[in-house]
Write a structure and sequence with these properties.
8 helices; single chain; elongated; alpha/beta; 21% strand; 2 domains; Rossmann fold
């Protein structure tokens, strides 16, 4: 069965063009022109992936992302944001609210297609893993952290820490490889599912957020250390 993609874009020309190309690639496509339509369509169709414009009438893309992530029907669906804004803060906020990736306008169709395929592959693999090994993961202890992999919960010094899905995945990968220097390219490949293309900003931004969650002094981190010019190492 082909994957269903919810395409949310208020520019009719771009929306129709992308919908045509996605259908040509074999996807089922549901479209929405504003934020309210997007939330309703997500609830009704339970898409496998959402392509979400940031600037929308009614509810903007950030609010749509927040609401979609709060719904059980769609909380696991990958979200790729489309944004014409160049400011890093908008992209960071979108990722923090639960988006998995972003593409800055103007973008090429091959780039968006590749990112969609990457996110769908990762989503399908996660779903398969949860079905075939429902109780394999258990608990990871890495003082002062305790990570429940089945329930996707994290405790720091006995206090639960709320964490977005991508941050949780990043933390688990780093902790499981404690003591090993992990390059940004390796983290992109194994946590995001990307082939390394030289852009490491996504990793650096997420590591910064993760430090803010678990470090006593994020500006002087003890648990997640930077190895200059290479990547990161967990020393918990």
């Amino acid at each position: 069965m082909s994957s269903t993609i919810l395409l949310v874009e208020d520019d009719a020309t771009l929306r129709d063009t992308l919908a045509y190309r996605l259908r040509h690639d074999g996807y089922q496509v549901v479209t929405a022109a504003d934020g309210v339509q997007a939330v309703n369509a997500a609830r009704k169709t339970r898409p496998d992936l959402i392509v979400l414009d940031l600037m929308l009438p009614g509810l903007d893309g950030l609010e749509v992302c927040k609401q979609v992530r709060a719904m059980p029907e769609t909380q696991a669906a990958p979200i790729i944001m489309l944004t014409a804004r160049a400011e890093e803060s908008d992209k960071i906020l979108g990722l923090e609210l639960g988006a998995d990736d972003y593409v800055t306008k103007p973008f090429s169709w091959p780039e968006l297609r590749a990112r969609i395929r990457t996110q769908l592959r990762r989503h399908e693999q996660n779903a398969a893993d949860s079905l075939t090994t429902p109780a394999k993961q258990g608990i990871i202890e890495a003082e002062p952290l305790r990570i429940d992999l089945d329930r996707r919960q994290v405790w720091l010094n006995g206090q639960e820490v709320e964490m977005a899905a991508r941050l949780f995945d990043l933390l688990v990968y780093i902790v499981r490889h404690r003591g090993i220097v992990l390059t940004r390219g390796r983290l992109l490949e194994h946590v995001w599912g990307y082939d390394y293309g030289g852009d490491t900003r996504t990793v650096d931004v997420h590591v910064r957020w993760l430090r803010e969650k678990i470090e006593h002094d994020p500006s002087n981190p003890r648990l997640i250390q930077t190895v200059r010019g290479v990547g990161y190492r967990f020393k918990g």
